[in-house]
Write a structure and sequence with these properties.
Elements (H helix, E strand, L loop, with lengths): L1 H19 L15 E4 L4 E3 L7 E7 L6 H15 L7 E7 L7 H7 L8 E4 L2 H10 L4 E3 L10 E3 L2 E5 L5 E6 L4 H12 L1
Parallel strand pairs: 3-4, 4-5
Antiparallel strand pairs: 1-2, 1-5, 3-8, 6-7, 8-9
Helix pairs in contact: 2-5
């Protein structure tokens, strides 16, 4: 667990340095881009499938013991905190563990966090391409004797505008009220 935490902190620091050293978002490393994945209902989706909504995009995995479920819960609470404005925001959960996070598994998993949360999976190549577009680090750890394993990964929630442009991101531990406050500023 300590190794996973150190890896996540290092990845967060690297991305944070790129995004927070005073470089305007337009000049920072490009975040986001086209993707083609499969949602938790079995439908193929792209970045254009979400009716010109703002996107909250989180990369993680359903077998995550703590950070991912916490972030998904906060993301759903932030959407609710927005009231009617929340209809303009589509929360997305993109797995970095498609071998375990199948369509069927995600169909059971994502409704626990928010009724509008969409779970996305795909082939290893599709997940890799989406993660690369969002500059997400992930690495599967060696399985234990029971075959269980953890996945080290970047833990940001990206906020994208309806054109797919990066607006900002939220770090682990920001509460739903603060997230909703920042989102509201972009929506008003």
């Amino acid at each position: 667990m300590h190794r996973m935490f150190r890896t996540m902190v290092a990845a967060a620091a690297a991305i944070g340095a790129t995004l927070w050293i005073g470089v305007p978002a337009a000049q920072a490393a490009s975040i986001g881009g086209p993707f083609e994945l499969v949602d938790h209902t079995g439908q193929t989706v792209t970045e254009e499938s979400f009716d010109d909504r703002y996107l909250l995009v989180y990369f993680g995995y359903a077998y995550c013991p703590d950070i991912c479920p916490t972030e998904l819960l906060i993301m759903g609470q932030a959407v609710d905190e927005l009231g009617d404005l929340g209809d303009e925001v589509q929360p997305l959960f993109v797995t970095v563990d498609p071998a375990r996070d199948t369509v069927e598994y995600l169909a059971d998993y994502v409704p626990s966090f928010h009724p509008r949360l969409v779970g996305l999976t795909g082939s290893d190549e599709q997940i890799h391409a989406a993660a690369k577009a969002y500059r997400v680090f992930y690495r599967l750890n060696e399985p234990d004797e029971d075959g269980a394993y953890l996945v080290d990964h970047t833990s940001y929630i990206y906020f994208m505008d309806p054109d797919g442009d990066y607006l900002t991101h939220f770090v682990f531990g920001q509460g739903p009220e603060k997230m909703a406050e920042i989102i509201r500023k972009h929506l008003d």
